[in-house]
Every structure is written in structure tokens, then in C-alpha cells.
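My hope is that you will study the protein record below before we discuss the fold together.
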Amino acid sequence: MSFQLDTFNKLLLETVGVGLVIATYPDLRPVFRNHLVLEWFPGAADSAGGGLEAQFPDIDIPALQAALEENETYKASLEVKVRRRIHALSLAATRADMADGSWVIIELHNVTKVQELESMISSYSGMVERQNRMLKKEKERAEKLLLNIMPESVYQELKTFGVTTPQRFDEASILMLDFVGFTTLSVEHDPATIVSELNDIFTAFDRIAEHQGCERIKTMGDAYVAVSGLPEANPDHAQAIARLALLCLRYLKRRNETQKIKWHCRIGLAPGPVIGSVVGIQKYVYDIFGPGINLAARLEALAGPMEILLSEEMHPRLHAQFQVEDCGEAEVRGFGPRRIYRLLGADELHLQNDPAAFGN
């Protein structure tokens, strides 16, 4: 025959996943089948001498002939069973009129394989979406953890540039709080109870600090460290930290009225320049440094149960609005003899109405 089978063979070899049949027209006698057709219809090779009807009994031959007569594409769906699997095939037959005669080209596409690929793509898409959701959730969790250990502006700097620059804050006030008899409490009660109690108390302190515009820097066991005046400057930093101290004390007093474990704290307040910076590479910690921190810690150590002591540097900032008592001079370790004051109260109405005072 004069049909250029060599050319078609090259095309067929380059075709992947498509079955091809070439038949004469108009008598529809197959002259070529590729390997996929022989795989799907193994009987086609045995009936090589017959027409399309004999080799592919599911094809509607009259409908095929009518379409080809009109030079239209005949389309049909077939099913074949290969081994134990049923494959859905889409068939498209077109007439090709050439110089040496007319031919019929039949393409067979494995729809099942396409459906499997679509299902696989859908499955992968779902997996990617799930991973993106998990990634977003983990990112939010990491962000929440970092915001818990450093001020938001510091976190934003770390997030944007990957590093943070140590900053000096000339005007800030520090609160150091420690519980009285914590070692004894931790021995007398099981660890879960102590941790739960501390979690409740520190959570309440955090709410009060946030409401007063203060920043909790860290907790160390039973110690609580907060500051006012950083990272955002606050001209009323001393008043804010004093209100925080009074409200923390009031919270504990109210809590002790109903709870089995009675908590008593000591508080030291001091102003001073502070350096704030993220410390560490693998484990970030936002920490503050400066003489004011040490002075607040020394005053906290000198304070009695449920007592707030403040330095002489802080007294001028508070005496007009707060009830402050002169305690006289005392030897402060590392600072020598210093005049010390006791903070007794403030604007009682304001404190009683503070919605954060009792975790409301």
C-alpha cells in the first residue's frame, strides 16, 4: 500500500498514552494498530483480516460511517478489561483524505488514567493546602510564643531584619516581685498545684500590666519582672509601675480570701536608664539591664510580706498622687545607705474600678 506508514510509525512512537488505529475508507479495514491498542484489545491482532466491526464490536459502525460520510468526527466511549482492571476509553475517529486515498484515523485515550491523574493532583493539592494550614498555624504559634517573651515592636524588628538592635531607654521604671516562703510552699504542695497557682497569678499580673501600659519582661520561678517606659516611651512610667504594684498586691489579697494557698509577695520599685535587647541565638530571651533593675531587686529583698518599697529617686515622681511613707535610711547592698519609701496606696476609686485588677 502507498500509505506512508513509516511517517506514522515515528509519530506513534512519540505518542505516549494514546492508542491509534489506521483503517481504510470507506471499507474500514484496519491496516495499523499501535501497541496500546493491542494491549487494550488483544483480539484485534487475531482478527487482522476483518473489519473494524469484527475487531471492535462495541463501535457503532453505522453511526461511525454516517459521521465519516459527513467528514465529521465520530466520538464514542468504550470500556475494556485489561487483566483485572476496567479501563474507560474515549474514541475519536476522523477521516483523512490524502493524495493516495482516504483513511480513517482512530484515537483512543485512556480516560481512567486521566481520572487517576486528576484524582492524584486533587489529592496533592489537598495535601499542600493541609500543609499550608499547618504551616500557618505553626507560624502563628511561634509568633505568639515570641510575643510572649518580647515586646511587639522588638518582635517586629526581629521578624523584619532577623536581628534586633540593643536599645537604651533613659526613662523607665522597674518592678521586681517575689513571693514570700515560696520554697516552703513548693515542698508542701505537689508541683502541678504550684505551677497551676503561679500560672493563674502571673496571668492575672500580665492582664494588669497590659492594662496599665507596662511590659512584663520575664518570670524566673516565683519572681516577676515588669517595666514601664519601654519599648515605647512613657512620661508617666513611675505612676504606671506604681499602679501595677498596688493592683498586683490587691489581686493577691482578694485571691487569698477564697483560696487554700495564701500567697504573699514583696515588691521593689526603682526608676533608671535601661538597656533592652534580645539575648541568645537559638533560644531568644528579651532581657533588660541597668542599675535600676539591680536597685529594684535590692528593694524587693528588703521589703516585708505584702510590702512595696521604692527608691528615693522614685519618691518625687509619686508623692503627689500616691500615699507614700518614709521608712528612713537603710543599707542597700551594692548601693550603700539609701532613703527608702513604702508605697501604701493611691487613688482608691481608680484602683477599685480597674477592670483588670481581678482578671475581669
In short: Residues 355-360 have pLDDT under 50 and may be disordered. Residues 41 and 80 are 7 Å apart (CA to CA). The chain has 13 helices and 15 strands.
